[in-house]
Amino acid sequence: MPNAVSVADAGGGWMSKPGNEPLASDALTENDYIRMILDIYVSIPNTPERPRRDDRFMATRLYRQGVPLYEFECALLLGCARRELQEHEEPLQPIRSLRYFIPVLEEVRSEPVGPRYVLYLREKLSDVLRPKPPRKKRARAGGIARQLRLQW
Predict the structure, then answer these.
(1) pLDDT of 84-132, one tens digit each?
(2) Is residue 1 assigned to a domain?
(3) How far from each other are the two terminal CA atoms of the chain, in whole angstroms?
(4) Cα(123)–Cα(91) distance, integer angstroms
(5) CA angle, residues 33, 39, 41, in degrees to nearest 5
(6) What pTM did the predictor assign?
(7) How far apart are CA 76 and CA 55, in angstroms?
(8) HSE on the CB side for 104, CA within 13 Å?
(9) Best CA proximity match to 105, nearest among 45, 61, 149
(10) 48 in a structural domain
(11) DSSP structure class, residue 117
(12) Domain residues for 90?
């Protein structure tokens, strides 16, 4: 993962560098790519704190289609900016799925976003992007849970 930076990394940025973007199949393993996509997704305001199964499925699909992380990150920044930087009469509904950003990704793929505009968007959104939540290790359903089942 030499070319990508996560939310929690130095500088508070989470964009891979333009022109250095790895293709999904080149520099990253499938698991690393999916993890990075999901980490970026949950850093966007009004998204779930944890990705859902369908979000993982979409991230897998993006990997298999060879979507560069940079393009995906641009799509999320652009989609987030369109939501967060406009005034709305009523509060916006939360984003419930990674699929919300697919039309923006298609737009970014057909009309690439310039690096200066990406930096501008990142600067404008710096206050609303939330840091990547720390990963918690799941407790295994072994020990106590297994003992409880045996007692029934």
Answers:
(1) 888 878 888 889 999 999 999 999 999 998 999 988 988 888 887 766 5
(2) no
(3) 48
(4) 23
(5) 105
(6) 0.67
(7) 14
(8) 18
(9) 61
(10) yes
(11) H
(12) 10-151
